[in-house]
Write a structure and sequence with these properties.
Layout (H helix, E strand, L loop, with lengths): L2 H19 L4 H16 L3 E8 L4 E8 L10 E3 L3 H9 L3 E3 L21 E9 L2 E10 L7 H24 L12 E4 L1 E4 L2 E9 L16 H26 L5 H13 L5 H10 L4 H17 L4 H24 L10 E5 L4 H5 L6 E6 L7 H8 L4 E3 L13 E5 L4 E4 L3 H21 L16 E6 L4 H7 L5 E5 L1 H5 L7 H15 L4 E4 L26 H6 L1 H14 L7 E5 L5 H20 L8 E6 L2 H5 L1 H7 L2 E4 L1 H9 L17 H16 L4 E3 L7 H9 L4 E4 L1 H12 L3 H12 L4 H14 L3 H5 L2
Helix pairs in contact: 1-2, 1-4, 2-4, 5-6, 5-7, 5-9, 7-8, 8-9, 15-17, 17-18, 20-22, 23-24, 23-25, 23-26
This protein binds phosphoenolpyruvate and magnesium ion.
């Protein structure tokens, strides 16, 4: 390969990748790959073999130079031939004379007889082998280093595209018989949900507009024409406004914009797509994306940038369409919400009896929205990065929140398989029903309290039904997130009172507003580069005392005449000064309320331990407050430097990390050294294996999602405290999170609790 070719690498790579991205389906993507590689590398053959994991076979998927009739028909065993060798080694195999290699296999149906030189590179995405990309040449020569480097780089860049296309490629309006697809993500909330996908997408985000079938084509066309006319009008106004400030050449750009919106151009194409049954917004997305991809694949930089203009126009028209669109989403009775980044508001917008599942392309099990889904008993799968939401609308899906996968267009076998799991789960929960009224006491008489985490009033029935002895964390921000402005003191008082009354006489721990990080209020945007290290929790409310004071007053007033203990809890505390200041404000609120004539008790005040600094100061903190409560979701993210929302690093988010366990034990010891109770309200309290260790550490209260409460109770009451402590002592000597988790899980299995281990 010539020097010139090497210097052209980046350009060629970019062009090939862009063409592949815009191909739209897997088969066309692969076809473009082989065509372009053959052309650019001047080889006689280029082929792609994709691994079919279920069948453990390579499928011959695309070729230039070999027998095209074998495409989609010929399969190879995973250990067969040189292709198998590339896959096994997971590295390039570069041979001058492939014919003499012991692993070479001759496939008559491929017609590959005359080729001697062979270069095969694996296609790997996120550590899994997707297939093998091969080039061949009839002369016996070794491909040089630059050729190998080119193919390896191309394969690495294409791996993501192929993974994505593999997961989504065939899902289009035009395919009537659609195959089932199993798309993997992360377990967000346990359970199995069957339903119909409803795609939720942010407004004016063209890329995420789903394809949606419509029958009233004429209305769509009228809406589209109106949106285009309004956009044209807007552009004319801009142009007039800027006339005196711009050069004629620059003003011509607006004319170009107007032309693009002409019926002979993009507008006409959009109408053709609407005629095929797609709604206006979906048709607009489809046409604009095709044009943008076309522009972006151009070599000329000026033309490449015109792609951005077309996208901008598309967004403008979309905004007009959306502002005119007053149709309310008609949620089917088996709704599965699907979106790029779903929020708590999306969850709350569907009536709970209709919501069967929840699928988010971004986020992980520790994202707040997944925690809420779990609290509501809605199966959720997060971080499904290979899911193209655009094609999902109306599809039949199964959400497997246990293993973290989504089956699109499930077949009969899938349905039967998942129905069986549902049956087993129901048996498990029914079997545990009797435990609800019993206290959580170990076989040797140790008593531990099991409380619940709540956020919505709908959590109440489930919590009480499962025997919750108190609320360890009421996430007040959920109510704030569902409003379109800050709720008033009185509005808050009513909601809090409802919660306190529902749990009366059980204690209720209300956390002061914990926004920032991944929890934002639509009416109070916080823009930061590092939101988790920024303005969060108590930092916000101490800067906005008016918010803090109104909330604390509402909490204290809400408890008037109710017998249960109100506990106020402060989130994201990193220093004693914050506690002193918050306590001063709480005492002031209390005094004022009493002076106003309301008879109420001073609530207990506690602090969440969720950053490493608070772990080290746990005893100083415990001296000042009435209780400590560990927020392990954040504590783990800050101790291990792992973003709790990032699916890419979800494997590194380890509850059983030795450093985390040590910190948890230190906090419990520190609280008890000051004679103060300690609880934990992060998700790990709801994992039976972790709960066993926490009980052994002497946590007084474990607060969790109602969904897990009975399983945890079953686990803890199956052990003696002495045995739990023996396990803990052993674990504290271990230095590896995986080994610790395996060890504890195994102890549970041996105690006959294998089913609860699987359920997490
Ligand atoms: C935590 O961080 O563990 C916690 C309970 O709070 P949140 O998940 O709401 O941040
Ligand atoms: Mg937290």
């Amino acid at each position: 390969m010539s020097r010139e070719f090497s210097s052209e690498f980046p350009k060629i790579l970019r062009r090939v990748v862009q063409e592949v991205v815009s191909a739209g389906d897997l088969v066309s993507s692969l076809d473009i790959i082989v065509e372009q590689v053959q052309k650019e590398m001047h080889t006689q053959v280029c082929s792609v073999y994709l691994l079919n994991e279920a069948r453990q076979k390579y499928v011959f998927m695309a070729t230039r130079g070999l027998n095209a009739k074998a495409v989609g028909v010929l399969t190879l065993d995973v250990d067969e031939g040189l292709v198998g060798l590339v896959g096994e080694r997971a590295e390039p195999v570069n041979l001058e004379d492939a014919q003499s290699h012991p692993r070479n296999r001759f496939f008559e149906e491929l017609g590959e007889d005359p080729f001697h030189s062979f270069l095969g590179v694996p296609i790997i995405h996120q550590r899994s082998l997707l297939g093998v990309l091969v080039v061949q040449q009839s002369e016996a020569r070794r491909f040089d280093e630059s050729e190998e480097a080119f193919l390896v780089t191309l394969s690495a860049q294409l791996a993501g595209v192929i993974a994505h296309a593999k997961a989504t490629g065939d899902l289009s309006l035009t395919t009537s018989e659609q195959p089932s697809r199993d798309v993997r993500g992360l377990s967000g909330a346990p359970g199995i949900g069957f339903g119909t996908a409803v795609v939720v997408y942010p407004k004016a985000d063209l890329g995420s507009v789903p394809t949606r079938k419509v029958s009233d084509i004429e209305s769509e066309k009228i809406a589209f024409t109106e949106a285009v006319n309004e956009t044209r009008e807007e552009i004319r106004e801009f142009s007039n406004h800027l006339e005196s400030q711009l050069q004629p050449g620059e003003l011509a750009l607006f004319d170009a914009y107007l032309n693009i919106l002409d019926d002979n151009e993009i507008a006409g194409e959009v109408k053709t797509v609407i005629d095929q049954g797609n709604w206006a917004a979906g048709a607009l997305r489809q046409v604009i994306e095709a044009h943008v991809a076309n522009f972006e694949s151009m070599e000329d930089e000026y033309l490449r940038e015109r792609g951005a203009d077309v996208r901008d126009l598309g967004v403008r028209v979309l905004a007009k369409l959306q502002s005119a669109d007053v149709r309310l989403i008609n949620y089917p009775k088996d709704t599965v919400l699907v979106g790029e980044e779903l929020t708590a508001t999306d969850l709350a917008s569907v009536a709970s009896e209709k919501l069967k599942g929840f699928v988010s392309v971004r986020g992980s099990a520790n994202s707040h929205v997944a925690i809420l889904a779990e609290a509501m008993g809605v199966p959720a799968v997060m971080g499904v990065e290979n899911l193209s939401t655009q094609w999902m609308e109306g599809k039949s899906v199964v959400v497997d929140g246990f293993s973290g996968s989504v089956v699109v267009n499930p077949g009969k076998d899938h349905i039967a398989y998942y129905e069986n799991i549902v049956k087993e789960e129901a048996e498990l929960v029914d079997g545990l029903g009797d435990l609800a009224d019993q206290p959580c006491v170990t076989t040797d008489g140790h008593r531990i309290q099991l409380w619940v985490n709540t956020g919505l009033i709908t959590d109440v029935a489930r919590s009480l039904g499962r025997g919750a002895e108190g609320v360890g964390l009421y996430r007040t921000e959920v109510h704030f997130m569902m409003n379109d402005r800050f709720p008033t003191e009185e509005e808050q008082r009513i909601i809090y009172r409802e919660h306190l009354q529902a749990f009366d006489p059980r204690p209720v721990t209300m956390r002061t507003l914990d926004i920032g990080g991944d929890k934002s209020l639509p009416y109070f945007p916080i823009e930061e580069d590092n939101p988790f290290l920024g303005w969060r929790g108590i930092r916000v409310t101490l800067d906005h005392r008016e918010i803090f004071i109104a909330q604390v007053r509402a909490m204290i007033e809400a408890n008037e005449g109710i017998d249960n203990d109100l506990r106020i809890m402060l989130p994201m505390v990193t220093s004693i000064a914050e506690i002193d200041e918050a306590q001063r404000l709480i005492s002031r609120c209390y005094r004022e309320i009493v002076e106003e004539g309301t008879e109420v008790e001073m609530p207990d005040v506690g602090v969440m331990i969720e950053v490493p600094a608070a772990v080290y100061q746990a005893q100083d903190i415990a001296k000042r407050v009435d209780f400590l409560s560990v927020g392990s979701n954040d504590l783990i993210q800050y101790m291990l430097a792992v973003d709790r929302n990032n699916a890419q690093v979800a494997e590194l988010y380890q509850e059983f990390h030795p450093a985390v366990l040590q910190a948890l034990k230190n906090v419990a010891d520190a609280a008890h050294a000051e004679g103060k109770p300690v609880s934990i309200c992060g998700e790990m309290a709801g994992s039976p294996s972790a709960a066993l260790l926490l009980m052994a550490m002497n946590y007084d209260i474990l607060s969790m999602n109602a969904t897990n409460l009975l399983m945890v109770k079953w686990a803890l009451t199956s052990f003696s405290m002495a045995k739990a402590q023996e396990i803990l002592n052993k674990v504290l000597q271990m230095d590896n999170a995986y080994l610790i988790k395996n060890y504890v899980d195994n102890e549970l299995r041996q105690a006959g609790l294998g089913r609860v281990v699987r359920a997490r």
